[in-house]
Amino acid sequence: MQEFFQQLANGIAWGSIYALIALGYTMVYGILRLINFAHGDVYMVGAFAAYYLAGALGVGTITSASPLMAALVLLGSMVICALLGMGIELLAYRPVRRSSRITALITAIGVSLFLENAGILVFGADPKFFPQVIAPRTITLPGGVLVTNHQIMVVVVSIVLMVGLTLFIQKTRTGKAMRAVAFNRDAASLMGIPTDRIITYTFALGSALAAAAGFLVGLTNPKIEPLMGVMPGIKAFVAAVLGGIGSIPGAMIGGLLMGISEYMVVGYLSSTYRDAIAFVILIVVLLLKPAGLLGRNVTEKV
Amino acid sequence: MFRMPRVALPLITIALFVALTGCAKRETEIKVGEYGSLTGSTATFGVSSKNGIELFVDNLNAQGGIGGKKVHVLVEDDQGKPEEAATAVNKLIAQDGVVAVLGEVASSRSLAAAPICQSAGVPMISPSSTNPKVTDVGDNIFRVCYIDPFQGMVIAKFAKNTLHFTKAAVFRDNKNDYSVGLANYFTESFHAMGGIIVSDEAYSEGDQDFKAQLTNIKSKKPEFIFVPGYYTEVGLIARQARELGLKVPMLGGDGWVSERLLEIAQDALDGSYFVNHYWEKDANPAVQGFVQNYKKRYSSTPDGLAALAYDAAGVLTHAMQGLQQKDPKAFESLSGPPNADQKAARAQLKELIAATRDYPGVTGRISLDEHRNAVKPAVFLGIQNRAYTFVATVEP
């Protein structure tokens, strides 16, 4: 039983990362009906931004590690990625906004490949070792389950960001505008909502969450490289589909389920199926409940 | 009026450039190709090998080369990807016209490139690919290191007889020919000696999180974990194992050999052991000379892969020297155009490499057997307080 709870604890920490990335997918999809395939690579840029920021601030050795500096690095990389997300939207997606959805989708794949290869060019293809901005410590939970303070941070930061996001979307004017644009863009525009600006905000917000995920992964698994976003990007996408793409609570639940199921597959089936489980889930969801767990069924007029 | 198409000018420039540089024939040079992972997740493999080869060849050229001819090494980066290794070797042979190829460290990459060398009739010497399949590709493919059946056997023996362990966990990289092969040979030998494999888990190169598999391994209570992987993942695995309270020693193969291993693992590998190809503090004057020259030039200690690459370059140029003495005319054609004469000379060179006996390398005396593999001792190193210590040399 101890193993079960150990796998569960690790699965929740790992799933929180997926949840943070999945939120970006789902927000952009909710508003633009666009699957932003470059999102996984924004997460990679977030990890590298944190890496270079930590280097510039001189944190990274155990002695200079401090929670304040860590928070600074986290916020800095979120801001950098928010700007990156806005830039991507402005340069790549806005020009094709009036074209068909397939055009935007292909553009997204193009942006993804661009970021990956630019990453290899700029950061180099060899992996970097993420500085320990917070000294690692192992904590024993009741029942003999071992977790690190980094894993706890991952879960706590994820929860804080998700709650913050939900409040932002439910309570603020911009959040309300986002919901309006997601509901019906043309009608929102007629009501005087600056849809272009709202879309830019959405990209900024989603990318900042991806950057947070990049930072947290760097902290728990200190190896970052330019192609690190490919697999988590795909899995977070599946998580968003599982939860119901377009639904924010759905993305959180989907991400957590994804992380936990990966751990359970390794624990009780075979470690070789670890990556396969994501795609099994995708196929099952598409067959049984295409709208996802929390998604609404939308009938499309043909 | 005549108007040049917009693309014409750059094209003409390129054509002129190619024609001019192509004309300047370097007939006093023997071109040798090298491919390796200068970048990517196993970057230290490629860089160490490149340094080792460079050190040997520059030294040889400074002493006059071979029969007045200099050896020119052309290096291609394969980014640590098998498909890029194939592209790199194709380019070296078809475009650059090299007469022999040196590389790779990783067996998966050597296996991708070897068929190309074999079908082109270009001898290839792998410094440090240990999977037996590599030299099985054909009679043009050689190696100057031991092979995995031997490596797996000595690790099993060391665990059983020296450390007195009977319960092993195996944690292998499922996407990697070297790792899967070595895991299987180890398992076979350890079973035969009466040991038990309590857990056999897998990961994939590039993974970041290993805690799920390590939790499984921990629940089976092994006395040690055998991790036949490459250093980047090994370092992360060690850290995460310690975070889960899994404190048993780890054992590994020559994929651990890298100056970055302990940088990643920090102190998580203290108490662990792995197999190397040589020991840098060996009292042998040849080894010490090599280590000092290397340190002087690259300001770092040469790892086992640098030493093997140094020896691979040595074995190749030794065979070239042999050819020069045996058949000067054939030797002459090695630096000439890629014609039938050169092809015949390459075939002779291949025979001479195959006949290598007792070549005095820094990693020991190198003799190639009938399967074109070197028969050499393995060196066990231990890790204590983030430093390597010599444990034992195991003769074949």
Spatial sequence of strands, sheet with the most strands of chain A: 1-2
The oligomeric state of the chains shown is heterodimer
Poorly predicted tracts of residues of chain B: 22-26
* Main sheet makeup of chain B: 7 strands, mixed
Record field, number of beta strands of chain A: 2
CATH C-level category of the largest domain in chain B: Alpha Beta
Q: Name the helicity range of chain A.
A: over 70%
CATH architecture of the largest domain in chain B: 3-Layer(aba) Sandwich
State the separation between the terminal residues of chain A, measured CA to CA.
52 Å
Q: List the strand order in the largest sheet of chain B.
A: 7-6-8-9-10-13-14
Q: Count helical runs of chain A.
A: 11
CATH architecture of chain A: Orthogonal Bundle
**Could you say which structural class the secondary elements and strand pairing of chain A correspond to?**
mainly alpha
β-strand number of chain B: 14
Structure in words:
The complex is a heterodimer of chains A (302) and B (396). Chain A is mainly alpha-helical. Chain A has one domain: ABC transporter involved in vitamin B12 uptake, BtuC, CATH 1.10.3470. Helices cover 71% and strands 3% of the residues of chain A. Chain A has a two-stranded antiparallel sheet. In chain A, helix 1 packs parallel to helix 5, helix 1 packs across helix 9 and helix 1 packs antiparallel against helix 10. The N and C termini of chain A lie far apart (52 Å). A 7-stranded mixed beta sheet of chain B has the order 7-6-8-9-10-13-14, with helices on both faces. In chain B, strands 2-1-3-4-5 form a 5-stranded parallel beta sheet, with helices on both faces. In chain B, helix 3 packs parallel to helix 4, helix 12 packs across helix 14 and helix 13 crosses helix 14. At the A-B interface, helix 1 and helix 10 of A face strand 7, helix 8 and helix 9 of B.
